TrEMBL record:
<dbReference type="GO" id="GO:0016491">
    <property type="term" value="F:oxidoreductase activity"/>
</dbReference>
<dbReference type="InterPro" id="IPR014107">
    <property type="entry name" value="Cyt_c_oxidase_cbb3_CcoQ"/>
</dbReference>
<keyword id="KW-0560">Oxidoreductase</keyword>
<dbReference type="Pfam" id="PF05545">
    <property type="entry name" value="FixQ"/>
</dbReference>
<feature type="transmembrane region" description="Helical">
    <location>
        <begin position="17"/>
        <end position="37"/>
    </location>
</feature>
<protein>
    <submittedName>
        <fullName>Cb-type cytochrome C oxidase subunit IV</fullName>
        <ecNumber>1.9.3.1</ecNumber>
    </submittedName>
</protein>
<dbReference type="InterPro" id="IPR008621">
    <property type="entry name" value="Cbb3-typ_cyt_oxidase_comp"/>
</dbReference>
<keyword id="KW-0472">Membrane</keyword>
<keyword id="KW-0812">Transmembrane</keyword>
<keyword id="KW-1133">Transmembrane helix</keyword>
Amino acid sequence: MIPEALMQFIIIHQKEIYLIVTLLLVAFLYGYVYHLYSSQRKGVKDYEKYANLALKDNLDDELIEPREVIHKQQNQ
């Protein structure tokens, strides 16, 4: 269980802890959004293609990315 001293610390400083956790989560969210936009701008990945994945999910629909075929050499 949590020691009583730690529990008292959490109760006394819960506003500050909440604020710090919220700011960290906002920073991670903005960092992730920046990563998505910068990688799309650089041409690494086009994430807008993935937005249509839920709408175009039939077997006969066009592929989002070409499938990589790995040829294994068979030792015979």
